[in-house]
Amino acid sequence: MLKNMLFAATALVALASGAAAQAADLKELRIGILGGENEADRLRNYACLSDHLKKEFGFEKVSLFPAADYDGVIQGLLGGTLDVASLGASGYAAVSLKDPKAVTPILTTQQKDGSTGYYSIGLALKSSGIKSIKDAKGKKLGYADPDSTSGYLIPLTQIPKTTGEPNEKFFASTQFNGGHENNLLAAYDGKVDVAVDDSSGIGDFKDGFTSGTFHKVVAKGSIDPNKLIEVWRSPLIPNGPVVVRNGLGQEWTKKLADFYLALPKTDAKCFNAIEGGDFTGYVPVKHEFYSAIIDARKAAIGG
């Protein structure tokens, strides 16, 4: 029996040593990019990050995977086919609920006002006559993605606190529109009456505020913000994390955290491109920062 125990222990040590060697000899880094926005834009914005990572760590390849939807990145992290990703809080909750040991949150973004949170906002056309979410009774509500925090989980649980009814009863219909950009465009084109979107909620409305999809789409010139009005705003939501797959090991987790933490200073333009807004930088974050969102997701929509 002792012989078997020694054999098992030796095998475990060998397995751990092999995993450590594999992590140390990492040749390729695989980065997941959340879906729901224009794929060409996402790849263009992340190209600078790929270049920096190759130069910094000598990777032979940095692969960018712009998933069609949020779940593509979530499943990639759970299945071990992605190494790094920036998630929304609800997306991180989905990963954590399915496998608490899959990833480690390392950093989150910080707004110019020092906060590490953002808002879900409801946007409607001025021409619709909707001035507040209560005016949208019997209208169409557009969601972004089932795994989005600001584009689904928070509106699902928080709008009823204003209207007094579950969304499926208050609105004539609700629908997913394939991500934040498409959802915003659905409202702009009159396909839905109200669209929920992610936003810093600070700065000028005419700029789409300082960060979030509204800001990105305004900056691209795809919409005229003067034709829109904010009709609802959520409580503050914790900014989503940059996560690292735990299979890479603690050494790589620290290396990548240090790299990302320095990025706003080493290349502010690249940082702004991948985060899509006017942030001051990254700050360290831990699992506990998302406890409320994890609980909300578990209660409202399960894992």
UniProtKB/TrEMBL annotation:
- Listed GO biological process terms: organic phosphonate transport; transmembrane transport
Q: Which UniProt keywords apply?
A: Signal
A GO CC term? ATP-binding cassette (ABC) transporter complex
Record bears the keyword Nucleotide-binding: no
What InterPro entries has UniProt attached to this entry?
PhnD (IPR005770), Phosphnate-bd (IPR017797)
Residues spanning the signal sequence: 1-23
Family matches, as Gene3D superfamilies:
Periplasmic binding protein-like II
| Classification via CDD domains | PBP2_PhnD_like
Q: Which SUPFAM superfamilies match?
A: Periplasmic binding protein-like II
Q: Which family does it belong to?
A: Belongs to the phosphate/phosphite/phosphonate binding protein family.
How is this protein named in the record?
A: Phosphonate ABC transporter substrate-binding protein
Give the species this sequence originates from.
Neorhizobium lilium
Q: What is the gene name?
A: phnD
